[in-house]
Amino acid sequence: MSGALLVIGDVVTDVVARHRGPLASGTDTAAVIRTLPGGAGANVACWAAHWGCPDVRLLGRVGADTAAWHERELAGSGVRPRLVVDTQAATGTVICLVDGSASAERTFLTDSGACLRLDPGDWSDAFLDGVARLHLSGYLLFSETSRGLVRVVLTAARTRGVPVSLDPASAGFLADLGVGRFLTLAEGVDVLLPSRDEACLLTGLPDPGDAAAKLSRHVPLVVAKLGEDGALVAASGTVRARIPALPATPRDTTGAGDAFTGAFLAALLAGAEPEEATVEGCRAGAKAVEKVGGRPPTGAG
C-alpha cells in the first residue's frame, strides 16, 4: 500500500425489511426488520478496510441524532471518519424492502437528509494529504449543494495528481439528473463503476458490454457491475475482460455493489491490475449478498 483511500459520500441509517412474498396492500406483511448503518459511500469505505486497505478515510455529513453511533460503527470497521454534524437536518434514512425469495432483490425508499448537504465549506485540500486514491459516491451529484463540493474536490485532486473513481449510485436519481449533466459533472474522473442499469442508462444502449465500451471513450477505465453475471472491464472503447461472478446464495443484495467497489479499490491500491482488482470485487460482492445489510462482517477479508 502506497497511500490512503479517501471516500466522500453518504452515511445513512438503513432500515432493512426482509419479507417473503408480495407486499399486502392495506394490511400487514410479515417481515424481519433490522436497523443498520449504511450509505453507499460509508459501505465502500468499510469494505475497502475489510479487504485489507490499512488507511481508509471517509468524509460525510450526518445529523446530530445518530452522529456518535455512526462514528463508532465506522471506526469499528477500520475507517477513519470525518463526519460533519448537521444541526438542521437528520441523518439520511433508507428503508430497504428485500424480497425474501431466491433473488433477494431490494427496493429503496430514500430520505437523503443531511448526506446531500455536504458543501464546499466542509472541504479542505489538506484532506488529500497522504491520499493515493479518491472515491466519490454518485449520490453527491443529486443536490446542488454537494455538486458544488464535487467540483471543488475534483479540482483539488487534479492539482495533486490523485486519481478519482466515481460510482453513479442510483439509476432512478440518475434519470432525474439527466445523462448529459452527469457526464459533464464526471469530467476528470479516472474510473467509473456503474451497475448494468446505470451503464445502459448513460449510453442508451441495451447491451452492458456495448455500454461499458462506449463509456470508456469518455472515462479512461470503466468497470461495469453486472450482479450474478459478474463484471466487465472496458478501456479505450473496448471491453478488455469479462469476469464471472462467484457462486453465492443471496440473502440480501443491499450493498453488493458497494462491496465490489471497496474491494476493487483496495486491490488497486495494493498494486493489482484492473482485471485482478475486478476479480476481488466479484469476490466481495458474492460475500456481501450472503449477509443482511450493506456493511462487511467483522473479521479478516
Automatic annotation (TrEMBL):
CDD domains: KdgK
Transmembrane regions: none
Keywords of the record: Kinase, Transferase
GO molecular function, one term: kinase activity
Residue ranges annotated for the Carbohydrate kinase PfkB domain, each copy included: 5-296
PROSITE patterns: PFKB_KINASES_2 (PS00584)
Superkingdom: Bacteria
Protein name (Swiss-Prot/TrEMBL): PfkB family carbohydrate kinase
